[in-house]
Specification:
The complex is a heterodimer of chains A (311) and B (312). Chain A is an alpha/beta fold and 311 residues long. Chain A is built from eleven helices and 13 strands. In chain A, the strands form three sheets. A six-stranded mixed sheet of chain A has the order 5-6-7-3-8-9, with helices on both faces. In chain A, strands 11-12-10-13 form a four-stranded antiparallel sheet. In chain A, a hairpin with a 2-residue loop joins β11 and β12. The relative contact order of chain B is 0.13. The chains are: A alpha/beta (311), B mainly alpha (312). At the A-B interface, α1, α2 and α3 of A face α1 and α6 of B.
């Protein structure tokens, strides 16, 4: 088990009557990419701000890299890179000047700063526009400049708040690539988003937030098992007698449904295509097609919140 | 029970000051204001040189700041308008501007406290103001030496410097006020308007109100004058006017009722001028009042800013 870098205990934030974050207990291990998911207003950003010591918790405590963000915010902030949602820069300054200001605020000496700025801009593909005013930058470029700013610090933890919001698909894809690169460098990443397929694509573990609580936590297949029952779905197209009963009895199947005259869906904990095929043939039907659908976070999310609404 | 914060609250302060000053000095806004101040100084200096009473040689340099020719007020009269204007222009969008550009959360995510950001911005504004005023001051003295052909005496220089200090402190009040509004109001335009309203209130209406209130409350004429004076001194304009009057006019021994800034003129009613130490003693309360006002306003801004949520 690797070291825990972010930990909260009963972390709570109230704004008057409204509870933004409600007794949050979160543990993130070193080198992990953790995704915070949830609708707007579910307490994602508030949690992040409390981890950085930018907002005071009403109750509970947090630890980031062993430091208390309320008492030692400078220690935390010099080791954690934060990319706010809708990051802004000084439009009248160039990319390089903006980063130079950050470097100075971080207390980097001039030669170190210059080298790190050049490296960071190079890595983010902004070397060519380093001396252009940020006012002329596109949203994607600003976002990359935001990451360059984070790289400047050589952080141990990176917190990204809705990093792909408002990016075009190509820029968003590139951004996910950047996050994967962090993972290879063993940097812990905390990512908040409501773009589910992106979270699914990069995150090791996911926490689902709702009304300030983390209602679900785990890897995507784990969540799928919890919420959807079965994590995998086998779609069967077969002509012949009704197969619902037969499919139900397939070892490993959680449920089986008939959707259409010759279309069935079997939910299961694992990939049971072979068993399903055998059962279909044994039941005397002719199998036309068989396909496997892996669980998607989209579905987990939708199903979860539907369930909540129904209650 | 509040946890004790660790680390210096001033970490990053000078980085903020340097950045903000660079911004101020290169901004178009400051360029325009500097041009206006320069023009004012040139015109009033020219007028003063034309109108210096011939024959007198006492405190010639101080008269450069205070001699006027109708319809234009003297340089100090203009300063009463221009200093608040510059100070407000330097401060009204300092915090809400960062907020609207969405740079605030990014800057505060760096290892600095909010203290450093706010004080850094305030000091940058104050230094910029001081820089502009000192430059103008030197220019007037320099041109004065050139035209008058005599160097200023030690006392003139000392009085001139105190006048400069009082002017910067006066600017500090308006800068502090503008920054309070920049923390309080999310829209820079609202903050600017609010600051200008306060300034207008003290410049135009306070004098009238003071008269009315004193008339209503006072028992007897003497009491009324006293009350009027007290109320008037709640306005930074009065404090500033009295401070510079005492510094620039060694003949002033006491303050009567209201002296509007624009009417300041050297009047040599008393033949023997006061020594500098006595003048300083005379306006010590006014000077400390100006500085205290600046500190109080900064403290209000500080408290508001510490409590503010930075999320959009």
């Amino acid at each position: 088990m690797s070291e825990i870098v972010i930990e909260t205990q009963n972390l709570t934030k109230r704004y008057g009557e409204i509870v933004a974050v409600d007794n949050l207990n979160l543990k993130i291990r070193a080198g992990e990419v953790f995704g915070i998911l949830g609708p707007n207003g579910s307490g994602k950003t508030t949690t992040i701000l409390m981890l950085l010591g930018l907002t005071e918790p009403t109750a509970g405590s947090a630890r980031v890299l062993g430091f208390d963000p309320m008492r030692q915010p400078l220690e935390v902030k010099s080791r954690v890179g934060y990319l706010p949602d809708q990051v802004g820069f000084y439009d009248d300054l160039t990319a390089r000047e903006n980063l130079a200001y950050t470097a100075k605020l971080n207390g980097l000496s001039r030669p170190v700063a210059q080298r790190r700025i050049a490296d960071a801009l190079e890595r983010m593909g902004l070397a060519d526009v380093a001396d252009r005013r940020v006012g002329t930058f596109s949203r994607g470029m600003r976002q990359r400049l935001g990451v360059a700013e984070i790289l400047l610090k050589h952080p141990q933890v990176i917190i990204l708040d809705e990093p792909t919001l408002g990016l075009d698909p190509e820029a968003a894809r590139e951004f996910l690539q950047i996050i994967r690169a962090f993972k290879e460098e063993k940097i812990t990443v905390l990512l908040s988003s409501h773009l589910l397929h992106q979270v699914q694509a990069v995150c090791d573990r996911v926490g689902l937030f709702s009304h300030g609580k983390m209602v679900l936590e785990g890897t995507v297949p784990e969540l799928a098992r919890q919420v959807l029952g079965g994590a995998y779905r086998v779609h069967v197209r077969a002509v012949g007698p009704d197969l619902t009963q037969a499919l139900h009895k397939v070892p490993g199947a959680v449920s089986a449904q008939k959707l259409d005259s010759d279309l069935y869906t079997v939910e299961a904990q694992e990939d049971i295509r072979a068993e399903v095929a055998r059962a279909v043939v044994q039941a005397g039907a002719s199998l036309l097609s068989l396909s496997l659908e892996e669980p998607s976070l989209d579905e987990v999310y939708q199903r979860y919140f539907q369930g909540v609404m129904a209650v | 029970m509040k946890p004790v914060r660790e680390g210096s609250p001033w970490r990053g302060l000078w980085a903020v000051v340097a950045k903000e000053m660079a911004d101020h000095l290169t901004s178009v806004r400051m360029g325009i204001l500097e041009a206006i101040v320069l023009l004012t100084a040139a015109v009033t200096l020219y007028m003063a040189l034309q109108n210096l009473p011939s024959g007198t040689s006492e405190f010639l340099f101080l008269r450069l700041f205070t001699t006027s020719q109708d319809p234009l007020p003297a340089f100090v009269g203009f300063l009463g308008f221009l200093v608040p204007l510059i100070a407000i222009a330097l401060g009204f969008d300092s915090i809400n501007g960062e907020f609207n550009r969405r740079t605030l959360s990014r800057v505060l995510a760096q290892p600095i406290y909010r203290d450093a950001l706010l004080l850094g911005k305030f000091l940058a504004g104050l230094f910029t103001l001081a820089l502009v005023l000192t430059a103008i001051w030197l220019m007037i003295i320099g041109l004065g030496i050139f035209r008058l052909g005599v160097p200023p005496t030690g006392e003139e220089v000392a009085r001139g410097l105190l006048f400069l200090l009082a002017t910067i402190a006066y600017g500090g009040i308006w800068l502090g006020l503008a920054m309070v509004f920049s923390v309080r109001f999310r829209q820079p335009a609202t903050a600017a308007l609010a600051a200008i309203s306060v300034w207008l209130f003290f410049t135009v209406f306070w004098g009238m109100l003071v008269g009315l209130i004193a008339q209503g409350l006072a028992k007897g004429v003497f009491n009324q004058i006293q009350l009027e004076l007290f109320l008037a001194r709640l306005s930074p304009n009065t404090l500033y006017a009295e401070a510079i009057l005492a510094f620039l006019n060694p003949a002033v021994r006491a303050f009567g009722p209201l002296v509007p800034l624009q009417l300041i003129q050297l009047q040599w009613a008393v033949p023997t001028p006061l020594p500098l130490s006595q003048s300083l003693l005379l306006v010590w309360p006014q000077l400390t009042g100006l500085i205290a006002g600046t500190i109080v306003l900064f403290a209000i801004g500080y408290v508001l800013f510490q409590r503010q949520e930075i999320r959009a």
